[in-house]
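2024-03-11 09:14:02 DEBUG pipeline.ingest accepted 1 chain
2024-03-11 09:14:02 DEBUG pipeline.ingest length=101
2024-03-11 09:14:03 DEBUG pipeline.predict start
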Amino acid sequence: MSKVFLDTSYLLALELAKDQNHPAAKQQWQGIIQSPPSFVTTSYVFDEVVTYFNSRGHHAKAVQVGNNLLASTSVEMVHVDEALFYEGWQYFQQHRTRITL
């Protein structure tokens, strides 16, 4: 089974009603929930999402979203170390992808 990568912009679009992609993300999420795939994200994405909310004075929201990601049985958290960082950078340089909601 393939895994779906959860990135920062998608997680923020799901959580922020004012985000321009919120309606599309919510609609897509409702379809995904019917038969949820396995998700994967990284400690970098976790940090970005939590920092986004906390730096804007929404500490409780940062804690809620962070705990939801960590507690989810559908989300695999990949902790980025130095070797994985450089492997990811090599991959990025060789592949150009764009996913549109």
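2024-03-11 09:14:41 DEBUG pipeline.report Helices lie at 8-15, 22-34, 43-55, 59-71, 82-94.
2024-03-11 09:14:41 DEBUG pipeline.predict end
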